[in-house]
């Protein structure tokens, strides 16, 4: 299954408004998940978290992250949101695991790990501008399901994919499962969230039902939102670049030639790709940006350098070894 991402040059048409693309460095790598396991000082699997330093084992939706945070790893300095995904490991022939490093994207090379984050308004070629409603205080959501191991399951979500980077600019050939061959510049995990909201609930028990995909067509074809979820929200999109290059020697791969990468939740297929989001922009900064015509760089927003963002790191609260050759995945996750 392949997706052809839209070309950015197409977005330069005059009717398009605000597209944000920015870097957020790594805040911390650890086993906490305030959405799925609130309050638990040890979620089942390891995550890389980026964004504001109010990230915690539990995060009260009635408290705005900017009120607690003192810094953010994002280059938009008013963004104290938290964004997280699972962490990738390499499994050696002897069965031990090594965490795969994360590298900065094109233009964001100084980033200490982290992700590239996009907020894309509706693609509306040649049509008048329409209002895009930014996320509100207390909003959170999850896309994807870590228990999925088949293509049929993975297709319940759209656009949770991998790009096998031939070089850092490769943006074609996305797959729903892990690449089967070594990728010369690494593996980019792509996590795109649904773009329609019910307009009422800031969260839901499964952290998903309050958002939906367009009822026909796709986000890229400007498909309409379903009546149950009529409000158009920006498409939130993460790119995470796993620097698999030092594991590209196929003599290190399993003897049957299968690919050696495993998500921290024990998934060797890639179909369990998922991402989490806790909104935390200051006041109406995100809405202001969505209403403006800014493109990638947004002069309306306060910025900081990547090196400044790199300084905003959190101490690991769940103390455990996540580097070195590990005899088991953190949290004792089994590969299955
Ligand atoms: C995280 O939560 C604990 C209590 O669960 C609290 O003591 C601590 O101050 C919080 N840390 C941050 C950064 O909010
Ligand atoms: C397992 O394999 C890795 C990679 O080949 C190697 O670096 C590591 O030392 C090995 N560990 C053991 C216990 O043999």
From TrEMBL:
<protein>
    <recommendedName>
        <fullName>DUF1996 domain-containing protein</fullName>
    </recommendedName>
</protein>
<dbReference type="InterPro" id="IPR018535">
    <property type="entry name" value="DUF1996"/>
</dbReference>
<feature type="signal peptide">
    <location>
        <begin position="1"/>
        <end position="18"/>
    </location>
</feature>
<dbReference type="Pfam" id="PF09362">
    <property type="entry name" value="DUF1996"/>
</dbReference>
<feature type="domain" description="DUF1996">
    <location>
        <begin position="33"/>
        <end position="281"/>
    </location>
</feature>
<keyword id="KW-0732">Signal</keyword>
